[in-house]
Amino acid sequence: MKEVRISRAIIEEYNKRLLDHLENDVIIVGAGPAGLTAGYWLSKAGIKTTIIEKKLSVGGGIWGGAAGYNTIVLEEKDFMDEIGVATIKKDNLYVIDAIEFATGLGFAAKKAGVQIFNLIEVEDIVLKDEIVKGVVVNNSSISTLGLHVDPFCISSKCLIDATGHPAGIVAMLKKGKPQAVPEELKEYFMDVDTAEAGVVEKTSEIYPGLYVAGMAVCDVFHLPRMGPIFGGMLKSGKKVAELIKQKLKK
Ligand code: 48F
Q1: How many domains, in total, are found in the chain?
Q2: CATH number, position 145
Q3: Which residue ranges have their beta carbon within 6 Å of ligand 1?
Q4: CA of 92 to the centre of ligand 1 (A)
Q5: Which residues of the chain have pLDDT under 70?
Q6: 126 alpha carbon to ligand 1 midpoint, in Å?
């Protein structure tokens, strides 16, 4: 029956991808601009990378631009040129259609080779010998419905918290290891220049095996927020990819 052949094709292909990515060099939690950019550069370097995204769509905070005006601002356009996304120059800024940005970045990351699993939520980390070694995942609808259903695990040599404002993965580490991140996770008042520079500077490995990138960096290091200017997210994603490339080389 054709209906069953369609189901078989989907189930076999999905299971193959899932089995192929139970063990990874890198897991990125969150398919926002920082996570997708990190995935793009890591995959381009031939590093086996999986992104876990709890929502249906990739792009995180890109889609809504500012207050629903679906337009994004950058100060440099080199990465947009790299992935073929159009920019419009306005004074010293580049303006980008948020829909083209979100879809273009998602497409570029996929084409570079990153594996993305959407509708999967990371609900905990795996910590062994004081090293973060993977994540505990479940279907997002299970947590939305508040069901008690046990999860499964996938492993990483390096895990990136790219969950944006909540710094959700760092919060999971902090729950069991409060001394690992002694300060409360929170951002400071909006200040574009300080935030854009700080988010890149502080992108780092904050615990063995756990890196932080994108807006999550602001929560961990009490940096200001920066609103709808996205250069810091892209540079943070690229920086975390560089740090991990160096680490894996060793
Ligand atoms: O929020 P998000 O876009 O984070 P980002 O890449 O970029 C921040 C900007 O969008 C914006 C900003 C820039 O100026 O202020 O806020 O740092 O993307 C984070 C993604 O992580 C997913 C979430 O659905 C979103 O798509 N996410 C969060 N927690 C989990 C998760 C989780 N536990 N499991 C899986 N995905």
Answers
A1: 1
A2: 3.50.50.60
A3: 29-35, 52-55, 60-62, 121-122, 162-165, 168, 214-216, 225-227, 229-230, 233
A4: 27
A5: none
A6: 21
